[in-house]
Design a protein that fits this description.
The chain is of the alpha+beta class. Among the domains are: 66 residues, Roll (SH3 type barrels); 57 residues, SH3 type barrels (Roll). The chain is built from 3 helices and 10 strands, in the order αβββββαβββββα. The strands form 2 sheets. The chain has a 5-stranded antiparallel sheet, covered by helices on one side. A 5-stranded antiparallel sheet has the order 9-8-7-6-10, covered by helices on one side. The longest helix is centred in the middle third of the chain and has 27 residues.
Length: 184
């Protein structure tokens, strides 16, 4: 046997020896067949597996790999998804920071936290990791430092008139114009 094969086989023996008896495993043979069952016991040369057909005995030199089946596998897709989610969370914090930098100090802001909490305050400072807000809604006068990672959204209402007030003023102006035009 070549040194590389001996090294692979000793790693396989060590792996099987570290598994508890009765754990579900999948053996892959050198012929690329897969055998699933519960690990019985292992000797220096053999592995005993309890399959649905009874107990089978396999020599270590017939095996390519042993995989434990009672633990989740994290394949490439899962790793890419985790990376994508981590990147998306980082981008939202960066977007919130750039949005906060565009808001003038002392402006009224509405903040919604990831935990569901909402409050209104006056923007006092923008730092690398978060903003300082003087609270208006929950604890008037108190200042709070809020990390961008904890924020879900940051809104800057520009202080225009409420749409209902705009509609009432428009109707009133039209009635006044109609009264002037009709009365004269």
């Amino acid at each position: 046997m070549l040194p590389r094969e001996l090294e692979r086989q000793s790693a396989l023996i060590e792996r099987v020896g570290s598994l508890p008896t009765g754990v579900p495993v999948e053996l892959t043979t050198t012929a690329r067949h897969r055998i699933q069952g519960r690990l019985g016991f292992a000797t220096d040369d053999t592995v005993h597996i309890n399959t649905s057909n009874g107990e089978t005995v396999w020599m270590f030199d017939e095996l390519r790999s042993v995989r434990r089946l009672d633990r989740r596998r994290f394949g490439v897709v899962h790793r890419l998804l985790a990376l994508l989610l981590a990147t998306a969370c980082g981008l939202s914090a960066a977007n919130l920071r750039s949005k906060a930098l565009d808001i003038p100090n002392g402006a009224k802001v509405e903040i919604q936290m990831k935990a569901g909490e909402k409050f209104t305050g006056l923007l006092r400072a923008v730092a690398e990791e978060g903003i300082t807000v003087e609270l208006i809604s929950s604890q008037p006068g108190a200042q709070r430092v809020i990390a961008f990672d904890e924020m879900k959204s940051l809104k800057y209402p520009r202080g225009g008139l409420h749409p209902g007030i705009v509609a009432a003023l428009t109707v009133g102006a039209l009635m006044a114009i109609g009264g002037l035009a009709g009365g004269g």
